[in-house]
């Protein structure tokens, strides 16, 4: 697999998002998840993304188990921290105080069974803590050899500039897909001005535009069923857009998911799509996107199939949207 440079970090063209391997979208198969991580590494993916709050630490432990026999220089760990989650799974806020940064990284290093993290980033902006203080604390971890690169997640242009004034930033992790293009309104330009890359999550809109989602898809414990885009009339309207995309993908000889992934990857050599595959079957389909080359006209046809202003519903429930500095 080819590589791309994200600011201070060089990594694989695609990354693997591991959140869904913990019970965020309902129950997940542990053995299949571990096999999927191995298959991703075998295919040349080096960037693995997780968070200390995914499954309340379960995800980090799972990733550690999958990597137990893998040489440390064969992969890169990108870890988010700061989300405060209650026993019932409710989001209680974010803590990015310097003392919390030091505590969180200690637990992540222990759970992941490693002596360093390749990228460390606050999951969201803590409105009570200057971003300069948070980035400064991560910088001290870099000086101590515990972290290699500073990342950001879901923050706006002003916050990006303030963070970059403290330490070089490798990348901004933010949702970017045919269905979510808010990054194009200032954030992407700011990152490029400052030499900051993008790791794009949600490239399939959490499965909505994967070509596999139906009205009967999703089971108990699947958090997507409470998302505005997956409910009521919104879902009907969005699946109609996916049908249009399917027609275009069929004509181009690719799957719906591959069309969506290729479109995100085409937006710039400084963008690495994170694919959230939970099984080897879905991973194999996503990997196929790395082999696809489309013309500008073909990419334009993909883009026109899902006009951004036609997508129904916000990308998160109201309370989650309120926590996004990137949406302010």
UniProtKB/TrEMBL annotation:
<feature type="domain" description="NADP-dependent oxidoreductase">
    <location>
        <begin position="14"/>
        <end position="305"/>
    </location>
</feature>
<keyword id="KW-0560">Oxidoreductase</keyword>
<protein>
    <submittedName>
        <fullName>Aldo/keto reductase</fullName>
    </submittedName>
</protein>
<dbReference type="GO" id="GO:0016491">
    <property type="term" value="F:oxidoreductase activity"/>
</dbReference>
<dbReference type="InterPro" id="IPR023210">
    <property type="entry name" value="NADP_OxRdtase_dom"/>
</dbReference>
<dbReference type="Pfam" id="PF00248">
    <property type="entry name" value="Aldo_ket_red"/>
</dbReference>
<dbReference type="InterPro" id="IPR050791">
    <property type="entry name" value="Aldo-Keto_reductase"/>
</dbReference>
<dbReference type="GO" id="GO:0005737">
    <property type="term" value="C:cytoplasm"/>
</dbReference>
<dbReference type="InterPro" id="IPR036812">
    <property type="entry name" value="NAD(P)_OxRdtase_dom_sf"/>
</dbReference>
